[in-house]
Amino acid sequence: MKSLSKTDGIIMSKIVDCLSGGSHFKLSRNKTYMALSIENIGHYHGYADAISLTHYGEQNGDLMRDPEMIFVLENGVYCPVYFRNDYAGVEQDVFVYDEAGKIRGIKLKLQSELAFFANTWMGNIKDQQEL
User: What SS3 class is residue 129?
Assistant: First the structure.
């Protein structure tokens, strides 16, 4: 799978360090921008380490993911595997499942597109949250 770039991987590590061994943290160093919710979701489809990053907005009293991305740690680097934006009605999972729910493959083109987006997003988070 395609991972974050080296520079953006460093930013991701700084984000994960905010957890300080906990399971979740709300990063909000600059009130001008949306806070970033960081959650260690642990095991995810056979990967021991998975992190969810989410910007939340609100619509009609409901929390809306804008976006949420899940990253798995593979060979020491973070790889994006899931994207959701509630405002746009988009949910994308890179894994292909069989009828029993077992992973049978990876959508490599989608995974590459998510990595491209995530690299841009990491730069935005770095600037917005003063990392």
Answer: coil
Range(s) of the domain holding residue 76: 6-128
Collapsed DSSP state (helix, strand, coil) of residue 123: helix
Record the tokens describing residue 38, joined without a space. Answer: 């960081």
pTM for this predicted structure: 0.94
107 vs 31, residue with greater confidence? 107
Domain count, the chain: 1
Q: For residue 79, is it within any domain?
A: yes
- Note whether residue 1 is domain-resident: no
Question: Would you list the DSSP string of 68-114?
Answer: EEEEEEETTEEEEEEEEETTTTEEEE-EEE-TTS-EEEE-HHHHHHH
